[in-house]
């Protein structure tokens, strides 16, 4: 496959603007998209000028990126607007071409833009992403590839070049499209549908779809507010499961549910890693607590002192006994003194896990202690993104990743992501009998 050359047109020449316009015009003409007819009032003479206006606005207020197979090729074009600005958000952008274009609109088309489309679009976009989110994001205003050069990776490269920067900045990326194949294209690249709206114009009725990517970040030194937000996500997600195992963990005391999640997060903050995901740079819609090779959940006194010790004092005697000596202790000859204390601390599932994975394997692995997404944000790729964030590191380390779950739907979720069931065990507590499943995934494939 030919090498793709991606470059930014920092100060584009008129020839480059015209070549980029031709690419966009051909790409959108190929779609046969009725929305373009609505934008121009059905006047085909305005089609090319619309793309030229977008490029000139991008040149002065955004960024124009092009891709091809040679150093001067323009086979695909993207117009991006970074955090803090937007398409036609300044008079300088509008003066670059939009004002002149508007003068060519019929009165009916001007009214459609000012009274219908712009206010309707703005209100809808804010409802999809959240007020102000688009302005704080990288917004992809236009992306097009010449028909003869499609499906060669050019458009994907023009997304990726900004994706790296957005990740470094902790910013999201968002876009709108009116074409079902485009929705599928963006979803395949990690974007999530945030909402749809019906737009009616001279071209008929069009469904516009808003998409954004997922922002994944590690809470290296989480604030108390971040800990509380993350705990609320875990609490809501596990409450939705209505899992008898949660009942067993707390002895049926609902007041301890949230405290149990807080203890996990505080342990993760001092001895593991807390990762969160959302659709904006500060959002917490999904949470993962990971423990890397060489440590484990509550494996050190520092972790236990961060929340577990205080939580234990709230356990009634029978619950404390259930946690501490439910079944025989594991053979701890190979463990450090600190981990000997820990494995005596929570015995049965540790005995079982060693039998599933092999002696000491978990301590050499990345263990996913907790993973949850707010109920209203499930099935949007957030949990997958939180697995992938650490999976890449595990691959670099040559380490396995492992997880336990007590829910059949979760087992299916992990298996769909390449995990293998290593074993099951029955755990009996105040919530009844629960089947816990151990899964692992090799990252050396």
UniProtKB/TrEMBL annotation:
It holds the Pfam family Acetyltransf_10. It comes from Mycena metata. CDD domains: NAT_SF. This is N-acetyltransferase domain-containing protein. One of its GO terms (molecular function) is acyltransferase activity, transferring groups other than amino-acyl groups. InterPro entries: Acyl_CoA_acyltransferase (IPR016181), GNAT_dom (IPR000182), Trichothecene_AcTrans (IPR052523). SUPFAM superfamilies: Acyl-CoA N-acyltransferases (Nat) (SSF55729). Residues 72-213, 282-441 form the N-acetyltransferase domain.
